[in-house]
Specification:
The chain contains one helix and six strands, in the order E-E-H-E-E-E-E.
């Protein structure tokens, strides 16, 4: 995970255990109608992917004394317009992306906020993060205004 300026948020971060990926190919659409009100065309624009990742953070130390702190360290969420790089996920084709989830050289996912971290008294932690990817934004760069 990277902040909006592109700096790495968590160093020494160990990849979480992924519970699930939920990916959706989306776009905005408009119908073109003639003067009789019949649809004679359809316009699609703002193509994008939305990915929700549910995960269990994993630390580097197996001792009970430090495991909770390391799991919580792995629960970091970026600020708005932060980015996320994903590797070693399943390879699936969605909305024109041959490998839709993995970022590889195709840029990073953009985080627009709304992620959550859940902790329990027993020490289990889980996280959910929703990310977006737009073909017109190269390298996952977003602009802070």
């Amino acid at each position: 995970m990277y902040d909006a300026a592109g700096a790495l948020i968590v160093t020494g971060y160990i990849s979480p255990e992924i519970e699930s990926y939920d990916i959706t190919g989306e776009c905005d659409t408009e119908e073109v109608r003639n003067n009789n009100g019949e649809v004679v065309g359809h316009i699609a624009y703002n193509n994008r992917l939305t990915l929700t990742v549910n995960f269990v953070p994993v630390g580097t130390n197996a001792t009970a004394a430090t495991a909770l702190n390391e799991r919580l360290y792995g629960c970091s969420l970026p600020q708005g317009n932060g980015t996320v790089a994903i590797t070693n996920a399943p390879v699936i084709n969605v909305a024109g992306y041959a490998d839709a989830i993995n970022t590889g050289s195709g840029g990073r996912w953009i985080y627009a906020g709304g992620g959550s971290i859940k902790t329990t008294q027993t020490g289990k932690a889980t996280g959910t993060i929703t990310l977006k990817r737009f073909p017109a934004i190269s390298a996952g760069a977003a602009t802070n205004l």
